[in-house]
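Worked example 2:
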Amino acid sequence: MKSNQFGVHEITDLRELSNFKWACLTQLETQLLQVQNPVLKQLLIESAEQDKLTITNMQPFLVSASESFMHGEGSM
């Protein structure tokens, strides 16, 4: 049986990684407005799309980790 329990350090790491990805995406989108080279611009667009996909894929883990943490705290 798989456990849905997450350690506090795992939840913290996941949130830090999510925040880092959001910060990178924000910076990348800002830089994208300044890039003139079409090849570099395309690379930045692809990177932004990958970051968005990564963030989207992390959301279920963040929700599950938060719920796991809240249920663990409620039983103490």
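Residues 64 and 70 are 10 Å apart (CA to CA). The radius of gyration is 17 Å.
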